[in-house]
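Homework help thread (please don't just give me the answer)

Our assignment gives two proteins as sequence + structure token strings and asks us to describe the second one. The first is just a warm-up. Here they are:
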Amino acid sequence: MTNAIITVIRDPGNQLGKRFDLDENGKIVKSPAVQVSFAEAIQHHVPDIAAMEKLLSNVAEDTHAAITNSVFPRVTPRMGSM
């Protein structure tokens, strides 16, 4: 992976995620379901598919966490996984 950084955002006080509904035409509509009180963002180095799979598995089990492919250039990513 050339851009091997994934940022995990976590709010210990509130769940993070999206809400999925159907509109009147049966189309899926997604909207944020987030009320952030306090959050931390940690960049993770994911050099291969196995590392990405492990990170996604950990985040999937934590309703207070979400991922983004945003990178903060002056922040050193955490090596390894969650």
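The one we have to describe:
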Amino acid sequence: MPDFVSGLVSPESGIAYLEVAVESMAKSLAATTVFVAHKVSDETDEVRVLAAISDGERREPFSYALHEQPCLIPYDGQPTLIPCDIGDQFPAKGEAGYRSFVGVPLRAGSGSVIGHIAIYDRSELIADGTVELGLVQAFASRMACELERHLEHEKLRRTADTCSMTGLLNRRGFDSKAHVLIDAARRSRSDLTVVAFDLDRFKAVNDTHGHAVGDRLINTFASCLGAVFHRSTDLVARVGGDEFVVVAAATSKQEALRLAEEGRLLFEAAPVDAGSETISGSCSFGAASLDEAGQLGELLEQADAALYESKAARNGRRGD
């Protein structure tokens, strides 16, 4: 079984090794579908598939819920074999044409289950699954190590890309992800809008009430933005002290401004504890769309310019 041996001894690491191992198992067993996934968190039943082969073709990463899925069983810590008639227990899998399933848990160094290997096939398992199970378990130890390595790397990357106070992307994380969204929108010729925000009179809040209250105001605003720009295609970042940016993919400038105004009103209605009193904040914003500027830097410049025009007009109306 050359595919089996080459997969076991592959010099790849991390995700690259998981892809090699999944492909090796699929070829060695002539299995319909093979994938490796990890549990997103202990608070949800969502898993993220990192490497997958189905009908001989690689699949892009995807997520799904474990509810009423055979893949839920390995998270109890034991290998799972359904040698035939999977549709009797899991009708949806039977309807998809599968007859059998092998699931093997992947454990971190601490012993906790962090993921699983899954094999679905349109045929019955060999010798009630002992052949398939033996092959999968030969891969499981190293796959668990490589999965744990990948998850630790991702954790470090998220820490480097995230504002520790708000949990939003920081400038570094924003720059890397915004370019991807802009390139995709340009290729598909779809709408994309960048909205820049900053808080009104934020320095006065810090000077009057202290930085702890200022931090509460920042966190409140971050929550309001997240409540309004909550789609998977929305990118929300804190890029400076009281400066925030949103990239709204597949969103016209008019719609993005409507959402920004909704966020502003939500923020103004949110009380913030300032000790002896409660205060509320306000913000200004401006937007630029992809048909007005082609690059991220230009979009940010135009959105900033629109923000300051808006701020000047608001201050003029207040008489500030």
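TA reply:
I won't write it for you, but here's a hint about the kind of observation we're looking for: The chain has two domains: 2-159, 171-318.
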